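Quick one - first record:
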Amino acid sequence: MGLTFSGNLRAVGAATNAENRSATFAIVYLISYTSLSLPSLLAGIAEPFWGLRATADCYLAFVALLALTAAARAMSRNGWFTSMPRRHRAGGVTDG
């Protein structure tokens, strides 16, 4: 995860002009940390009402759903669900 995040930050930095780079990085970090902490915070709030076991089961189901959705999207983008190869390079060159 660290290498992916670092690579994404490098790509964002390269695509952003110098005047807006610090604001762009601040927003990227804000969204990243919020998306990582919000599910845990919500689970902590839900635990007194649902109990630890039910909260943990719901949390794990939510994480599994997100992982399966991400995997399905990645596979569909790479052409895993079609018999036609996906065009990856400029000039109409196809892989497969």
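second record:
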Amino acid sequence: MKTGVYILKSLKNQRHYIGSTKDIDRRLAQHELGKVKATKNILPLELVAFLPCGTPTDARRAEYKLKNYKRKDIIELVIRDKKFPWEHVRA
């Protein structure tokens, strides 16, 4: 099992969904089967980033923190670099 934060992109409306899980394979299957209320109407989805976390608690905290950024450019930076924004070092 892989614990972490994941970002999905809707191929229907191009929007992103951010979630956390302790089993990414199981969670992706739930999304694909339409069993997740928040994403069932925006299928199909593509996994665009997965950021591993040490524990489920760490993953939930990171998910909450990432969702609070609310800026598309920051989410795109996370997708590109596969790092949380607070891990980026600015010179």
